């Protein structure tokens, strides 16, 4: 990929994704696949005035060995080093950037049960830090091509051709053309207009129907709101874009109100394993039955991580004719695939989907109906012929989606 | 390089270099150049019973940006995260492995003065941890090829051919042939035999002469001793090899007793910068005058890092006909070049070069004449026609080296 375009992408991530401000600290988490691009991002961070930029490199085969060889006790350990790292994030409101390039199947064969148990054991130590950070700091997830990931998407190509093609797909989906920052400004304004329209209807539920078997109803929160695109940090009021790309308009539904069956329309990569051809049945808001043709055990483990893992945290609307879906590429990566299709997320909901969340505690948001969990996992369920009806408090039915696309 | 030979090297590093024991933690510091080999080392650590293996990857261009853009104040900071990391090393006696692959010139152009000042500011925080760890834990420095490093050594070759040739040179120098572990056992026994011989002479000084201009005398410690090859940790009595390869027999000289001029015979890479064609004049044990054709400022900065940086911490004897020197390769890397040539080190001396150090504090070792400093930097001065005479307490003169090689 030409260096000039990559520099634009690096700048987009730093100025529009994280929106790094003078004196801030930045942590970048990434694989070993694109060190030259990571260096460009680091340089843009310093140009934006960052005081310190730390790159935390990781390598899936090493992670896999840890999962295989370390005891549950050792994996469950929350060390003083980690405590200090979390505390520094809280003190400094460190910007956090993930540059994902992982092989979606890179942890296949590891013991899901052990990893899940370790995560459960560690969560009580992490939770207070997460809550202290919630809404207060800038973060962003973007992607760069990894060789294994690219070969999975384009199996017919050589590794280097596949990586080049994945670069093209990532940059196109991320609007990295002539002036990416201007393009994102316009895009954020469009998403905000759609949110305003939806919020104006004051919907109490959404009803989904598709010929693939999806027949599902989810309750919305009377004090909820739809959001999309950029967000603003609570304390410093810094506008940033947590996902590049992002096409979705989403809200957190009312906990306990979901009925019927949802059929997934894309595979889900969870903890390095691919869950394929699955469906989930909900009753009283809870996933009570799951079927998957591949890795059903991973899916079952996922929804039993904690009490809230079987409840919904997110409802997101994306036109079937979205740019990413129209690319015809299945990315095997949530950041992209979630922006190609209407989706739901199991687990934790978002405080910012409650009106007035700026002055509410997390406890108050949970009381208002926002789900709480240690997980938040998106899965895709949009389809070509999906219809979505919104029902208002006074029983009025509004067609929101018709044949997979926006009807409003 | 064939995988089978690399696996032997990985096993040598883990079993003979670090000698990892069941339940231990290991930290591996390395560049991004050889992730597959690093994975082999991680796997060998787990096979040896390691409880946790952490890989701390780094990338010189990112380090360089930090040195360029971060303020002196920020670079001087010693964070609570670092404090927790050091404390864990002290608590766990974590094994530490450096797999060096850096470009010896990779930090060229950065501000030596700023980096030196930051290191000076941080040292008081690090020193107590270093002292608490001194002699108590297993550590090892070994090398793997980096592309830039390999191209510097073999400028006429393509990058991949240069990397392959550097692999061959590293593995040969490290005795990775049929049975590397048996070869290292025999090699350690040979080095120990040479030490016993030297210690039997009870030398008070060494006098160096060479046609290149070296004319130099260094005082030895009456309670000193020569060591070489493997070492044994103080608390747990674990035998390990801190350098792979290692050809040297060395001691720490008597602080304050060094006179005359030493001419370096190989360039010195210090903090990513190459100091070339230099000489140092000593008076009363101290480097009082330096000349370098390239990067003299870096050398001057180095010896003024603190009071002890201009005094000697090490005197090492290696035959001119050493396997590494005979390879004819100039590695631009101290780990190899120091094992190709007699050398000295400026800065910190070694407690283990004092008889009875096992029951002595660092303070007591310093009082006994061991130099103290935040730096320890080797530089090469062995030459083809170097003669070394040892003088005993009763004035007897023993020829130790004749024409660059052992005479005993």
Write the layout of secondary structure elements.
The structure is a homodimer of 408-residue chains.
Chain A: H1 3-18, E1 25-30, H2 35-47, E2 52-57, H3 60-69, H4 72-76, H5 80-92, E3 95-100, H6 112-133, E4 139-143, H7 147-153, H8 159-173, H9 180-201, E5 203-209, E6 215-219, E7 227-228, E8 231-232, E9 239-240, E10 249-251, E11 258-263, E12 268-270, E13 273-283, E14 286-294, H10 296-303, E15 312-317, H11 323-326, H12 334-337, E16 343-347, H13 362-367, E17 376-380, E18 387-392, E19 397-402, E20 405-406
Parallel strand pairs in A: 1-2, 1-3, 3-4
Antiparallel strand pairs in A: 5-6, 5-18, 6-11, 7-10, 8-9, 10-15, 11-13, 12-13, 13-14, 15-16, 16-17, 18-19, 19-20
Helix pairs in contact in A: 1-2, 5-6, 7-8
Describe the protein's architecture and organization:
The structure is a homodimer of 408-residue chains. Chain A has helices at residues 3-18, 35-47, 60-69, 72-76, 80-92, 112-133, 147-153, 159-173, 180-201, 296-303, 323-326, 334-337, 362-367; strands spanning 25-30, 52-57, 95-100, 139-143, 203-209, 215-219, 227-228, 231-232, 239-240, 249-251, 258-263, 268-270, 273-283, 286-294, 312-317, 343-347, 376-380, 387-392, 397-402, 405-406. The first copy, chain A, is 36% helix and 25% strand. Chain A has 408 residues and is α+β, with helices and mostly antiparallel strands. In chain A, the strands form 4 sheets. In chain A, strands 5, 6, 11, 12, 13, 14, 18, 19 and 20 form a 9-stranded antiparallel beta sheet that branches. The longest helix of chain A is centred in the first third of the chain and has 22 residues, at 112-133. The first copy, chain A, has 2 domains: 3-173, Thermophilic metalloprotease-like (3-Layer(aba) Sandwich); 180-406, no CATH class. Chain A is built from 13 helices and 20 strands. The first copy, chain A, is globular.
